[in-house]
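Chapter review: from sequence to fold.
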Amino acid sequence: MNKIFSVFLLVVLVASITIFINGCEQITPTGSSTGSLKLQVTDKPDELNITEAFVTVSNIQVHKALANESENATTEESWFTVINETKTFDLVAIQGQKMDLGTETLGVGRYTQVRLQVIDAKIKINGTEYNLTVPSEKIKLIKGFNIEENKTTTLTLDFNLNESVIKAGEKYNFKPTIKIIQE
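The token string follows.
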């Protein structure tokens, strides 16, 4: 009887360890399977004779749709940081090209928005530099995309410099017009 009980305990122990190990393999930082999101930035050629257009962002986040949220509803815990460092890019220099902003591993699922924090913007026209007034430091782009398991989703933030820079007397305002292109 004692030998049968010992074998039974050994079988239960091995089964428990196997279930535990298999369960641990499924756990990820986000609590589900993961894929990657790659962010890029580009701009089409400008018509304003702008020779430089520097934009500095300090934070880019994406919003993951939760099961109980509508497509446009958000909660702070459903925002995930993709870029958390200052990145400066010249929209004139990247016209017709793509510049990588960064890649981040995210949980598999549906994402509905991209949020950028613009901390500085300036342009140069005919050799004169102008600081752009940015009415809202946070730019929210509503565009759905999916992160699939073990795949990389690439989003390109396509700025339209012609529509983003608005002359107001002797000053210029920066109201970014950005289209998200998914590759």
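Two observations follow directly from the output. Helices lie at 2-26, 161-164. The two ends are 65 Å apart (CA to CA).
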